[in-house]
Amino acid sequence: MGNKGAVALRVLYEGVTTDGGKKETELTFVATHLAAMEWNLPRRNANWAAIMRGLTFENPETLLKPKKKNEPSSTAAPAEGDGQTDGAGDEGVHLLHDEHHAETLALQERLQDISVFKPSSHLFVGGDLNYRISTTSPPPMATFPSLDPDSEHHYSRFFALDQLTRERQAGRTLHGLSEAEVKFPPTYKYNVLPPDDTRLKVDGVEDVPWVFAPHRYPGWTDRILFLDVPSWTKVEPQKIEVKSYDALPVVRSSDHRAVFLRAAVPLLTEEELARPSPEVPTANGVDPRLVLPVAIDPEAWERRAAARRKEMFVGWSMFLWSTKQGALLLATLLAVGAGSWWLSQ
Q1: What is the C-alpha separation between 207 and 91, in angstroms, rounded?
Q2: Domain residue ranges of the chain, discontinuous segments joined by +
Q3: What is the pLDDT of residues 78-87, one digit of tens each?
Q4: Which of the chain's ends, N or C, has fewer CB atoms near its CB within 10 Å?
Q5: DSSP strands (E only) in 228-268
Q6: Are strands 190-192 and 121-128 parallel, antiparallel or unpaired?
Q7: What whole-number distance in Å separates Cα of residue 23 and Cα of residue 13?
Q8: Where are the transmembrane segments (predicted)?
Q9: Is 145 within 8 Å of 185 (Cβ atoms)?
């Protein structure tokens, strides 16, 4: 219920290598819309945490059920006089511990693979992330960013206040993700002005006149980030190469400016991107492809199904009681019901 959340897509891309061969690499795309309003910074971070917990490509409950079945209800103790020596008992405990440890690691890897942070997949996250440059609305006569490069209020001077950059670098949101340098103006909030016939058209597209909305600080709410090639990968190239990261022109149908990212993604196979063994140290111990920032919620799919049922109930109720088509359908059903009752008498 609500209009905030995320949707994800995972695809295999086949490309041609420099030597003419073919390779496949996996791409994961997450489109998201986080909480609005300047003062909702903690809620935006919480939205992202909820996405990491609940957005999976397989129901985690199906992975956890076999483990629950195999877990003993209690720890069995050897009976007296069973002939076991203390050494044999200790050895058995160690073997059980090692087996349990191996099963736990295998389960963690499987949960990691169904998460958005799958180690063998390139990850891109974009959308209306709604991070602002202030936690309060602007007062009257507030200083707004300017597009004039000679102005002391040029928009580039305001980017230091960007909440997303600060929260991401502090490890509170968009964990492990990178972003190309932001050189475009704020993408929100625009008031579109009436058409101006004197403004030039480029390729038949109107140059839409606009001003920043006075009741919201302009901010870089619309962003695209990516998870770069992991540090343990030894195959060249080892970086995603950003070609362009910019904002599209203002359009009449939105108070945002959409952004786009063009990047060259290395054709790295699942084996080339594979995570190192737990015993191998890495340069970045907080990489989300090694350890998830938050635990996956095993009941997320059931809650999503329950929310979907509520949405269907509310949607059909609103359709039937607040639209002409719904009223016509209700009247038809009543007429058919009344006619059936009359004919049965």
Answers
A1: 77
A2: 5-57+115-298, 310-344
A3: 444 454 555 5
A4: C
A5: 241-247, 259-264
A6: unpaired
A7: 8
A8: none
A9: yes
Which residue carries 């960007």 as its tokens? 162
Distances (CA, A) of 64 to 51, 54, 107, 290: 20, 15, 8, 19
For residue 201, which phi and psi values (nearest 5 degrees)?
-110, 135
Q: Are 168 and 174 in contact (CB under 8 A)?
A: yes
Altogether, the residues listed in the chain come to a count of 345
Cβ proximity of 117 and 23 under 8 Å: no
Integer Cα distance of 53 and 117 in angstroms: 11
Rounded Cα–Cα distance for residues 204 and 48 (Å): 40
The kind and range of the H/E element at 22 are strand 22-33
DSSP state of 79: P
Residue whose C-alpha is closest to residue 178's, from 231, 221, 125: 125
CATH T-level fold of 5-57+115-298:
Deoxyribonuclease I; Chain A (3.60.10)
pTM given for the model: 0.81
Whole-number Cα distances in Å, 252 to 190, 195, 249, 256, 323: 10, 10, 10, 10, 28
**How far is it, in rounded angstroms, from Cα 334 to Cα 327?**
10
Q: Are 52 and 125 in contact (CB under 8 A)?
A: no
Whether residue 132 contacts residue 163, with contact meaning beta carbons closer than 8 Å, is answered with yes
**Torsion-angle region of residue 81: left (phi > 0), alpha (psi -120 to 50) or beta?**
left
Tokens read off for 92: 């058995």
